[in-house]
Design a protein that fits this description.
Layout lengths: L1 H19 L18 E2 L5 E2 L2 H4 L23 H7 L16 H10 L16
Antiparallel strand pairs: 1-2
Keywords: Carbohydrate metabolism, Chitin degradation, Chitin-binding, Disulfide bond, Glycosidase, Hydrolase, Plant defense, Polysaccharide degradation, Signal
Protein name: chitinase
GO molecular function: chitin binding; endochitinase activity
Length: 125
């Protein structure tokens, strides 16, 4: 009978210990992020419902809305020129190589380029 009580006690302690270390993300999970862009709840669990993404959410709490247009609605010709300021400089190895039209054509060749991501991706404003 004593062995049975000891076994039950050990089993309960093991369950408690495993439960205490089972959190997946956030402060409880050593700062880990949830996979696939899932939200990390206030209790350290990953999911995609309001329970996880609502009040107390620790990371990846909301999915940004996708821009309404293509990449050309995000990066204008003027912004492109600002990003690659020296592309017209004859001393630049890339002189004449980079053009706005070629950039837009390449971006349209890859579905979602420049229009998808999560909050960890910087947004040009």
């Amino acid at each position: 009978m004593g062995n049975m009580k000891l076994f039950t006690l050990m089993l309960c302690l093991l369950a408690l210990l495993l439960g205490a270390y089972a959190e997946q993300c956030g402060m409880q999970g050593g700062g880990a992020m949830c996979p696939n862009g899932l939200c990390c709840s206030q209790y350290g669990w990953c999911g995609n419902t309001d329970t996880y993404c609502g009040t107390g959410c620790q990371s990846q709490c909301s999915t940004p809305s996708a821009p309404s247009g293509g990449v050309d609605s995000i990066i204008s010709s003027h912004l492109f020129d600002q990003i690659l300021k020296h592309r017209h400089d004859r001393r630049c190895a890339g002189h004449g190589f980079y053009t706005y039209d070629a950039f837009i054509a390449a971006a349209h060749s890859f579905n979602g380029f420049g229009t998808t991501g999560d909050h960890t991706v910087g947004v040009l404003t």
